Amino acid sequence: MRLDKFLANENIGSRKEVGVLVRSGAVTVNGQAVKKADLQIDPERDTICVNGRAIQYNRYVYLLMNKPAGVLTATRDNRTKTVLDLVPETLRRKDLFPAGRLDKDTTGMLILTDDGDFAHRMLAPKSHVLKRYEAVLDLPVEAADIRRFAEGIQSGEDLFAPALLEIDPEDPHRAWVEIREGKFHQVKRMFLACGKTVTALRRLSIGALVLEETLPAGAVRVMTPEEAGLVFQKAKPQNND
Predict the structure, then answer these.
(1) Which of 108, 149, 203, 225 is the most buried (most CB within 10 A)?
(2) Would you call 103 a catalytic residue per the annotation?
(3) What is the value of pTM for the model shown?
(4) Residue 40's CB: how many other CB atoms inside 10 A?
(5) All domains of the chain, ordered by start, with CATH?
């Protein structure tokens, strides 16, 4: 890999800015100052430092976002702000994309990555990765709805797989849903098939990875490798507050 590409991928600066940095003598490779930005390096073996600070190589990046309402889950849009617009410059990468999608008015957990294999595995129905949502409805949720969700729901040409539905014992207009698919407007359409309209929807977890309440809406942070692995683990029973 070229030195300037590596440094740009690690958000040290643009390729042009990195070139200036290298020529200034601020970059060392294995303890030796270098002046050529096109120098070929092995980021997994070589030690690259900028102004004395070692730059850690990350083959892929995994970001956790608490998506706010009104933002499009897309890489770019000419008319509407997208989730990538919320990612700080220091965390951006060329091939970053949202793994899956949330509707524009849906909030909560969203993972962004440049690891296509990770995203495919997470989203594939055969992986049985559960996504948990909190929904607010215009009408009270009933026991009959729980049975319909458990049996699977037909909506137009789509047959939604069986899903778990729990009603808030203190407010029947509030419920929790767990699905292992991610079809277009799925949770909303499942409730609509039961004669109810979702007025607010928030994703709480993916697999065993739970969105922490301390992450503000619109905020983004780097996930640890352990957290990325939690996506493919079975979620522990959650306390519905």
Answers:
(1) 149
(2) yes
(3) 0.83
(4) 9
(5) 3-54 (3.10.290.10), 62-230 (3.30.2350.10)
